[in-house]
Amino acid sequence: MSNKISVRQLCFFLAFVAPVGKIVLLPSRLVHFAKNDLLLPAALQFALQAGIVFLVVLLSRKGETLYELLRNAFGKVVASILFVLFACFFLFAALYPVQEQKLLVQSVFYDTLPSLFVFAPFFVLSAYLCAKPLFVCGRTWDALAPLSTVAFAGLMILSAGEADFGALQPAGASGFPAILKAFAYTSNWFCDSAFLLLLTGRLEYRKGMAWKALLSYLAGALAVLFFLAVYYGIFSDIAVRQSFAFAKISKYFSAVSVLGRVDYLFIYLLGLVMTFYCVVPLQASATCLREAFGERGKPALYSVAVNAAVLLVVIFTDLRFLSFQETVTVKLFWIFPLFTVLVPLLCLFLGRSRREKILR
Amino acid sequence: MKKFYADAIRRLPIRLYLLVAAVVCFAFFSNDFGLVDIQKTALILAAGVDRTQSGFTLTAQIANPKGSGAQQDNSGLILKGSGKTVSDCVAQIYAETGWVPKLIYCDLVVLGRETAQTDVFDCLDFFLRNEYMSDSCLLALCEGSAEELILSSSAADDTSADAVSKIFSEAAEKSGKLSKTTLKEFSIGYYGASQSGFMPFLRAVPAEETQNSGGSSESAGGSGGSSESAGGASRKETFVYLAQETALFLRGVMVGLLSPEETFAYRLLSGDVYSGMLSVAVDGEDLSLTVLKNDGDASLDMKAAPKAKLSVQLTVRLYDRDKASPIEDVALSETTDKAQKAAEELLSSYVGSLWEKIRQSQCDLFLFRRSLYRSSPKKFREWDSTLLNALRPETQISVRGVE
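Predict the joint structure of the above. Result:
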């Protein structure tokens, strides 16, 4: 059994798993800032990230992991310090998706506000996955991709007919500042390139892999953009009120009123995929700690440390979600482009001689 | 011995993990999945909201779950609460009765006539804010108070809420006799560029009905005969509900009322009437025509002077006459040119009357302001407040018989 992630698995992640993390609270946040222009900031984010994804996958040609690249460039101590910083970033990046998932479970799967405790089993699964090596993600994505495809297609079939796409007009009405704000303050949903950076050296690099990854990412991006258009077409001027969009858009299909909420089958499937997607930054954080501290600690220890930290934040911010959201997405938004754009770009220059740089 | 301890320490994280997982799973599965006890839950099926001097009153028709062995009385229960906000009313119901009101199955919200004198969103926003309530619930405005309507007994169904829900069926809407709206649609209209919306206007009309509760009769829909008595006749006032009129709203305030004819014209202009009935008089004879196909459109034309293009194209068939007819006429059911012309004239008068009502009320029923905003925000700012007065209606009505 290979301990590397194959081209197929990477493409599955980018096309079918990563997009589902962008259909819960992102749509209403985009509308909050950009109103009917929600597609523009999202498209800009996707375009930027697609470029970074392409370059990061290219970096895998060398076959060295990010830690090895950093160690060769700056020495072991600096590499370990940088990896602790990476671990902190991934921990920070995990907070919002986990909160998102918790609110989703409480709001969509229960008909009155349940206790915080109903979300506790998530951490049992997360702790288990975080103790595993990173390459096992590939097998998870193999299993999740068909579920995600069927569920997403099902929801779109049920909801696209109900959408009034004219609601997206007039384009640009919210103004450039609003679109820019929406672009900046939704950066936390676009962390996939930083995660791919950690997969450097763990990918089974083949010729054309970067192009395949790019196309897969763009396919996922198109699916999300179509989802956003349908979402705004259905809710129009009250879209900002509609959090957990993917769980609501399909209920207006005429057959649903006769048969009942059969669409919940798709919603549960997507919820399952989201659960695994939420764990990805936690896995990344635990992996960074493991690499930074070498063999001095057990994988389980890092897994428990990372999950306990997130659990504490979840408990602390349980009834403070709005201020938590403001802190992560607005006040500290700049952290995300730092690690998802600037750091990957800087990493491209690692381990290259001056001559190589000129030749390429 | 040393090896035993080393092995135990090595396996400790796994054992701890399994122990914690077992405790979490046990606690999770013994929590009834966080669900509320059904016996203490008031599943609100319909809610009526009335404005009072000090706030609102909420009258809730709730489902009354009973064990399978219990005598079934389908009348349901009515709970009532009052307070400064609608949520205060819900809290009062909970405090005074111990029932936990749940809105997840609430399919109908009825507002009393007084409630619509000022912006209805001071009470409707409660339902929109509620994450656990469906925004596809139907809205209606009623004559008098919503409490009276919810408390009234239906002549045709177990509860007034059931009866009202039935008249709001898809088939009834298709017939063109009423215009229904949901919380979502009304909210989009209210918060959108048009700031307009509509609700069906409900009237409870007494139905002359005497229920002989003695002998073998049973309560309507009941299976246990719980209303049987030893003898004598008791008279109980029952009602039927009409929703053929339509209340018009501008910025959440009721600004006009469409008659049944104007409501029919609105439905025809919306273009989704099928099997609707139309009665016309031709040469002193009354004919009933049924609509087989309806193409309707109301569009804005801003190319020169602002125009509202209103068009209705119907394909109809003769359905009935008020006189005995030869068998050939019964077999063919053809509509004559005269009948088609009469229908066109009749519909023109309906559409004209509808347009006049829209102009007077300034309710942007056809969402022209929204269309203008979507096509040109600059023109929208220029025409926003004067558009409906400036628009000149251009009506095109065509009625054809089946060939």
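The first strand of chain B starts at residue 41 and ends at 51.
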